[in-house]
Design goal:
By secondary structure, this protein is of the alpha/beta class. Helix content is 36%, strand content 30%.
Length: 240
C-alpha cells in the first residue's frame, strides 16, 4: 500500500487533487494507495518526522510560511528522496522546482490528462526504486510483495521459496519464470540453478559462501563463485 501525501493551503484545491487521485485509482485498480491531506508546510514536516516519509508527495508551491519548494529543499538536505509533484498557479518557480529534483510541475487548474501523466511517471519512478509491488499467487491467495522485501529465493522442486524480511512465502512457479520477473530489477542475480539473490541484502561474499543480512548463508558452487563475485562487486561499486 503506497502512502501519498497531499499538501495545499486551499481546501478546494485539496479536494480537486484528491478527486483526481481517486479517478486515477479507479483507472488503475492494480495500484493500491491511500492519501493523507495537509494544509500547511509545518503539518507535513511534523508528519514526516513522526511517521516517516510518504512514497509520493504532491505539494503546492505557494503556501503561508514556508513554500512548497522550501519544504522539499529541506527534505532533500535530510536525505528524503521521495518523488515530488508540485502544484501551482504560476510557472514562475518551475526552474527552482526542478533544482530540488521535482518529478513534475503542474499548473492549476489541474487537467486530468496532465495529472494522470504525472502519476504514471511517479509510479514508474517508484517501480524503479523497487517499491511497486509484484503480485504472486500463493496457497492462501494473491500476495503483493515489493522487490526490496525479497532477500533471496530458493528453488524447492516445483516451488520457489521467497525469503522476505519478516516471513517466507512459497509460490508454485519455476525458477526460470521467477527470474524473468525479477531480472528487470538490477539488484537480482541468479546463483546456480537454486538461488536468486537480492544483492542489496548481501553482507559478505566469501570464497564459496554468501552471507545475507537475515543471517542466512548460501553456498556458491565452486565453478560459479568467481563469476558471481565479479558480478556482485560490479553491482556494488556501480551503485555508489
Amino acid at each position: 500500500m503506497y502512502q501519498i501525501a497531499l499538501c495545499d493551503d486551499m481546501a478546494s484545491e485539496l479536494m480537486q487533487a484528491e478527486e483526481l487521485l481517486d479517478a486515477y485509482g479507479k483507472k488503475h485498480p492494480e495500484l493500491k494507495y491511500q492519501t493523507e491531506k495537509f494544509e500547511n508546510a509545518q503539518e507535513i514536516l511534523v508528519s514526516i518526522k513522526e511517521k516517516g516519509k510518504p512514497d509520493l508527495l504532491l505539494i503546492d508551491v505557494f503556501m503561508p510560511g514556508e513554500t512548497g519548494i522550501e519544504v522539499v529543499r529541506k527534505l532533500r538536505r535530510e536525505g528524503v528522496k521521495t518523488p515530488v509533484i508540485f502544484l501551482t498557479t504560476s510557472r514562475e518557480y518551475a526552474l527552482e522546482a526542478y533544482q530540488v529534483d521535482a518529478l513534475q510541475y503542474l499548473v492549476k487548474p489541474l487537467e486530468e490528462e496532465k495529472f494522470f501523466h504525472a502519476m504514471d511517471l511517479a509510479f514508474e519512478a517508484l517501480r524503479k526504486e523497487g517499491r511497486e509491488p509484484l503480485v504472486f499467487k500463493t496457497s492462501s491467495g494473491l500476495k503483493q510483495i515489493t522487490p526490496d522485501q525479497i532477500i533471496y529465493c530458493e528453488a524447492q522442486r516445483n516451488y520457489q521459496i521467497l525469503f522476505l524480511k519478516e516471513e517466507t512465502v512459497r509460490i508454485r512457479i519455476t525458477g526460470g519464470e521467477l527470474y524473468r520477473i525479477l531480472q528487470g530489477f538490477s539488484e537480482f542475480l541468479r546463483c546456480g540453478s537454486s538461488y536468486i539473490i537480492n544483492l542489496n541484502h548481501i553482507t559478505a561474499v566469501d570464497r564459496e559462501e554468501i552471507c545475507m543480512d537475515n543471517g542466512s548463508r548460501i553456498y556458491v558452487p565452486r565453478n560459479k563463485a568467481t563469476e558471481f563475485r565479479k558480478m556482485y562487486f560490479s553491482f556494488y561499486f556501480g551503485r555508489e
